[in-house]
Amino acid sequence: MTDGARETGEAAHIEVVALDASALMAPVEADLRLFEELDRLLGAYEVVVPTAVVSELDRLQGGNGEEATAASVGADLATRAETVATDESYADDALVELAAEGRVDGVVTNDRPLANRVLEAGAPVIGLRGRNALAITEP
After folding, report:
1. How many CB atoms lie within 10 A of CB 5?
2. Kind and range of the H or E run holding 65
3. Are the beta carbons of 137 and 129 closer than 8 angstroms?
4. What is the pLDDT of residues 59-73, one digit of tens each?
5. How far apart are CA 2 and CA 27, in angstroms?
């Protein structure tokens, strides 16, 4: 995270967050308790997942090994969120579209190139800080 990262959600008004595949796979890959960390950081919030992210997870869980297991867990966690349609079929582009259009107040990702694009679109990014905690980075 950058110097703009913080541990609490007090300054940001984040009501709706979008999750990318890396965030949904983090419980397996980074031993992250995703929804507990979001609860700690944000308090009350809504979670959305673009259909392109659901498709990405479906594709990834067809393989073998830890990535497939992580994608399977991620797909299961995605059912706790509202699935939203976008004009973009590529997951990263769909998340940037949601942020740029103001349809979400932030994006949860551990993908640095995607995080940079979301920040450039003017939305905060929530990502791993340390081993298994989340923090917000403001644009």
Report:
1. 16
2. helix 65-78
3. no
4. 999 988 999 999 999
5. 23
pLDDT value of residue 64 = 86
Q: Which residues pair with 107 in a beta bridge?
A: 18, 125
Digit-coded pLDDT (tens) for 74-83: 999 999 999 9
Element (H, E) at 78: helix 65-78
Among 54, 61, 48, 137, which residue's Cα sits nearest to residue 98? 48
In whole angstroms, give the CA distance from residue 117 to residue 66.
27
Q: Token match 């067809």: residue? A: 62
- Spatial distance between the Cα atoms of 136 and 116, rounded to a whole number of angstroms: 13
**pTM greater than the 0.90 cutoff:** no
Type and span of the H or E element at 23: helix 21-29
User: What is the band of 14 on the pLDDT scale with cuts at 50, 70, 90?
Assistant: confident
* Residue 11 CB coordination number (10 Å): 10
Judge contact between 13 and 105, C-beta under 8 A: yes
Residue with structure tokens 């950081």? 41
Give, in order, the Cα–Cα distances in Å from 111 to each of 2, 19, 35: 14, 11, 18
